């Protein structure tokens, strides 16, 4: 065997081994103990919204067909699950702090919604959406107000703070008396006030100008948007979903 051929085989074998090892480590990270509250979190009033094993406390929007899966300590949706409805909490919330870990596949697209009601045909026609997307590799052109951390179609994120697709991120959403903050990996990326003059102007001139219920309710469900990328293998997963009322 020629030295060059042997070298190519060794490099290829090394890459395969490295990739296999990376996949193993990735799965290990996904299956370690999560979805638990510390004694301090319990004392501070946090409530766990996902037990890591079941869909208890959640249902599909308007009880439509859905393919959400609780697996390996994660709550996941995949684009290949046709007709996959968004997921919402059983409970409704007014003033709260929400913390949630998430990751998406390359070219993925999803979102976290809040103040969702079931008065309209889709979750996003009532609830503002914290956008989750592969900013750099999504197969279609996206605007600044479509990038990760944005209040979708309203306020763009002030900085880029998302990790690469396949890596975990931590999102925090704070809603208190109409004042809203979006946090991503410890950085505040959006701040706005519902129903003030600036917000009303943005709504009246943008995507939601013909959506009378958008942002209209001061109380609603937390929603997880199903994976809706054009890439069939795309998916989104969540874990460590917890909330405390303010």
What's a quick, concise take on this entry?
The protein is α+β, with helices and mostly antiparallel strands. Helix content is 17%, strand content 30%. A hairpin with a 2-residue loop joins strand 10 and strand 11.
Can you describe what's shown?
With 246 residues, this protein is of the alpha+beta class. The protein has two domains: 32 residues; 210 residues, Jelly Rolls. It contains three helices and 13 strands. The strands form two sheets. Strands 1, 3, 4, 6, 9, 10, 11 and 13 form an eight-stranded antiparallel beta sheet that branches. Strands 2-5-12-7-8 form a five-stranded antiparallel beta sheet, with no helix packed on it. Strand 9 and strand 10 form a beta hairpin. The N terminus is likely disordered.
Give the tags.
246 residues, alpha+beta, 5-stranded antiparallel beta sheet, globular, Jelly Rolls, 8-stranded antiparallel beta sheet, 2 domains, 3 helices
